[in-house]
Amino acid sequence: MAVKRAKKKSSAVKDDDLDIDKIGDGGKDNLQKDLGSNLGEADKKELNRVIIYKTYDADVEFRLREIPSKNNEILIGPVRLTRFEKARITGARSLQLSLGAPILTKIPPEFTDTIMIAKYELEKKTLPISIRRILPNGIYQDIPIEWTI
Question: Sheet holding 130-134: strands in order across?
Fold first, then answer.
């Protein structure tokens, strides 16, 4: 059995039926006259005022400078790799392996996934990758993976 639906009557007004006298011309002039009439003299001056900001030139240039390490010690950041560094290295190495890069260590046969192989290579410290840790003042240190614990 089909259900018959009735059309609703719309109460929308057509554009042709609008009365211009009720709406007004709606131009910018009326709006600005209304704004101007409600503002005091101080407020009108505030609207017309131009604000000039002082600018200063910085004499300090940002340059990267490397800290040389003595006795293979890590001077910037923790002695261990952070979880973010591990994730970045693992992801980059996994991508390399998936694109056909050679495996750098002898891996157990149960490692079939590139992420597992990349984690294993990172754990064995056989990757020729170094981490660059940079401080906000531009001082940095390149840390080979062999130096980490």
Answer: 65-66, 139-144, 130-134
